[in-house]
Amino acid sequence: MLLVVSAVRNASYFLSQITQISQIETVSCEKQKKGYTIGRLTINSQPAEPAPSPSSVPAAAPSPSSVPAAAPSSVSVPAAAPSPVSVPAAAPSSVSVPSGLAARSAPSPFCDTLEPTALELKTTVEKAVVLRSLRKTAALKPFAIPEGRYPVVITWSKKFRKWLPLLLHVPGFEGIRIHAGNTAADTAGCILVGVNCKPGQVLDSTIWLKRLKDKIVEAKDRGEPVWITIQ
User: Fold this and answer.
1) Host domain of residue 223
2) Residue 205 and residue 128 in one domain
3) Is pLDDT at 5 greater than 60 in this prediction?
4) Is the pLDDT score of 66 beyond 70?
């Protein structure tokens, strides 16, 4: 059992949508030397992601075992020829399996997100070089966290005085959370959730944060790990 929260980022301006975050707008505000990134958040519960592939392999094994069984029958009577005709009939059933997998891989969007502007819009220095230097990283913050896959837990935040989702092992950052907020002024790298109705803003943030926390808590209660993919 696995709960995957995904965030997808596109370098597009003023798109009306929130990645896994799937559609995003990245805007550099010259006046404030600060910008924002709007994206789309999706939640994909994958209770049987590893299971289908192994189960289908053993399922394929019996079919070849039935083929040798068909061999002796064909030796005794030529009328056994129709049995290979039934073998192609098994092909359509295998076609339906990938279609189900494809359906699971395209979950519907959950809500919108807002983050600081992308690091690439603030410097021409390579991202890897910046993240290796604490001085350069501190000088360029705030900026959106690096793309990657991070485990998510819910812990007590002393700053916000409430239980909030926390992303672990984010390069160059500590204490990256998912919390409520409306504009880039409300985040120093954390992910804000809500609905992107106005340029550079997410609204109804508190409502969507509670809904997301409920999803994460439910997954944790079932013993499922929770991961977020930023891309």
Assistant:
1) 3-47+111-230
2) yes
3) yes
4) no
